[in-house]
């Protein structure tokens, strides 16, 4: 696909020369299944009324889901493995108007981490059924966390966190 070709830039886009990236220090925890096989079919951002998608965890992590059922909304982090990583300026509309990579939520970034807040529909054995994703079928899963707004820390408060009065 053309956006993977390092030579293929839109007007006024800018790339940098990088050593090949190594993903060795991340551990994928599973795979995401979605209805989308081609990037052009993916939504740009997921919607909570989007189609059901499945987060399939590697079996070693199944017990790591205990307690997650208490949350309606969860945060999912994934690895946008098909994207190039060398652009510092990008033209989302292909019209020559560029934005810095860190001013965008484009999948094209030095570390292609995607995040979505999704609706947790149900938990099946080792798999979460969710709505609100925007990634390709087969996208590697990095992490799952409860919605930060619904979450209250389970650990005792640390003195360093007390507000100054
Ligand atoms: N919601 C995430 C975020 O904000 O971090 C990702 C947003 S990104 C704009 C979503 C787009 O990434 C999709 O529309 C699709 O074009 C692209 N994409 C989806 N899965 C991908 C993958 N596995 N590798 C590379 N690009 C992907």
Order of helices and strands: EEEEEEEEE
Mean pLDDT: 91
CATH superfamily: YaeB-like
General shape: globular
Q: How widely separated are the two ends?
A: 57 Å
- In DSSP terms, counting alpha (H) and pi (I) runs of 4 or more, how many helices? 0
Structural class designation = mainly beta
Helix proportion of residues, in percent? under 10%
The CATH topology assignment is Elongation Factor Tu (Ef-tu), domain 3
Which compounds are bound in this model?
S-adenosylmethionine
Beta-strand level of the residues, as a percent range?
Answer: 25-35%
Q: Give a count of the beta strands, DSSP E runs of length 2 or more.
A: 9
Question: How many domains?
Answer: 1
Taking the sheet with the most strands, its summary is: 6 strands, antiparallel, barrel
In the CATH hierarchy, the architecture is: Beta Barrel
CATH class: Mainly Beta
Uncertain parts? none
How do the strands line up in the largest sheet? 2-3-8-7-4-9
Please tell me how large the radius of gyration is: 18 Å
């Amino acid at each position: 696909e053309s956006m993977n070709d390092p030579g293929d830039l839109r007007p006024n886009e800018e790339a940098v020369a990088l050593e090949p990236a190594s993903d060795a220090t991340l551990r994928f925890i599973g795979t995401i299944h979605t209805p989308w096989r081609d990037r052009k079919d993916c939504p740009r951002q997921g919607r909570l009324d989007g189609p059901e998608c499945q987060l399939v965890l590697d079996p070693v992590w199944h017990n790591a889901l205990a307690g997650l059922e208490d949350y309606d909304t969860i945060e999912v982090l994934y690895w946008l493995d098909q994207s190039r990583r060398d652009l510092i300026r990008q033209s989302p509309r292909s019209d020559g108007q560029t934005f810095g990579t860190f001013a965008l939520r484009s999948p094209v970034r030095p570390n292609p981490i995607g995040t979505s807040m999704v609706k947790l529909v149900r938990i099946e054995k080792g798999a979460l059924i969710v709505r609100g994703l925007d990634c390709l079928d087969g996208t590697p899963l990095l992490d799952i966390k409860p919605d930060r707004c619904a979450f209250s820390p389970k650990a005792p408060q640390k003195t360093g966190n007390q507000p100054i009065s």
